[in-house]
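Batch 3, record 17
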Amino acid sequence: MSFKYPVYIPSLEKNILFRELHNNHYVVILKFLANKDNHNVELYLNSLIDQLNDEITHDQLNKVDKLCVLLTTRIMCVGPELELTMTCDKTQQQYTGKINLNDVLQMVSDLQLIKSRVFDLKNNIKMHAGVPVNLYYSDDVDILDILTDTINGITVQDTHYNMSDMTIHQKNAVIDQVSGLNFSHIVQLANESQQSLRDLIVFEDKNPHDEQASVREYKLGLYDNTMFDMITMCYSSNLNNYYMSMYTLCNTMGFSADYIQNITPVESNIYINQKKQEVEQQKQQQTQSNPTVGGAMPTGF
Amino acid sequence: MSTNSNYDQIIQAINDTNNNHDVSVYVPSVSRHVKFKPMTINHQKKIISTALDNTLISNANHSILASDIINECCREPDIELYTLDKNPILVGLRCETLGYDINAQNDEGESIKTNIETHVQAFSSIEIPSDLMNTQEIVHDNIKIKIKPPTLEDDTRVGKQVYNNIKSNNFDNADDIRNTIGDAIIYEYVKYIKSVEIGDIHVPFDHDHAIELTRVVESLPIAVSSQILKIINNIKSIENKFLQLNDQEQQLTIVTDARFYNSE
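Prediction for the assembled complex:
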């Protein structure tokens, strides 16, 4: 039996137990991110949701549910803080900020999202709408196509088809064929659902190097890539640093590659930090016992 | 990922349903109702997209798109449709697909919610003069001009050239805007003219070359232009009857822009 932690799923209004994200998962995300392959990042995140629990699949979740899963996983398996580095436009000086992901998770979990809605069309077609499901919308998808993501199922002549697992392109190809629905209803629903996120500010950026700079608020939206960007920021890390850490853990500390692959990134960091502390202590001890270490070249050889 | 079979099944099921739910729309030029496929969400989205451009481009694009939708939905491909048919078909298609509650416009330009079912059902009673669809001839000195209401096909042909012309203009320049509006009026003349004869010279109006034809129209004497305009206005006044609502309290007009297909 492996360790599991509860993840609150807003649409189901209950907790689901998830297994940990391990280094072998994490490195796949890092590689896709390094390759700027957002499409596969989304596919992989969806598959991770399926892999890490035994109760639900990603196509049962809307994008807010997915955000909750991936934020909780990030908090539990990588860490609860997200450090950001920004650059002042005027002075080009860098400064940092921190996001407490527990706070973001709390806000997202507390959202009062719209309940699902059914559009009953006269041709014996029913369109089932709710919170959109796709995390990432590529550049070739326009805003009208994105709004269609609010449709998650369709009933034609009493046969129901689930559309939650469709790409945004597939979904639009289907919805585009439907007649009898005024598109303004979809726009109206999208506006209503977006309203619930109106006060969800995940980060306020005040540039310390420019007194005139106003505070920039970073918000999450349902019909754009802001949630996806938030997730990718949470999981971004330097791939080289990751491999250096793995090297240290295996080569210097003697862990097996298999063991390292199957622990969480936060556990790896605990080992690495411990090693760093030991190295620091050794350095200090050496400095105290032999103050000339690192000084002039030894002579007498 | 959704399986292809599932995806194909949904498309097939929707298409089957659409095919079984044709709508019947009155077409004035043939004086009868014709079967059309219902308008889809794709049509609505395309129409909304046209509204995102500036007004001149939007109007030109909307007109082309409206004709494309009519052609795409018409179940009788052999029928020759005219611009005269455009408004009643669009209004009929919209109402049969999305319902008869619309926002019409009053004289002050305000949106007024109204139901136009009675108005649409009375389309067949709107009188079209028997000679309206015939070729009419204007003779002035040695100039002979034949005029006929344009077919939807000719309207689209010219419309696409107008659209490309407008798109290539610089809308930061006031002169360009004025010229564009002027061109649009000349193009409207081109749509209605079938041929121009000046003495021995006969110029048949091939609407694939509308830009060249505008030069012919521009060279016509004002007296001739006025007579052409009179005929065009006469035809347009009939077209507009399909958009004028006989509300007892106020004059209301159906405006067939993007909002017409996306509001209620």
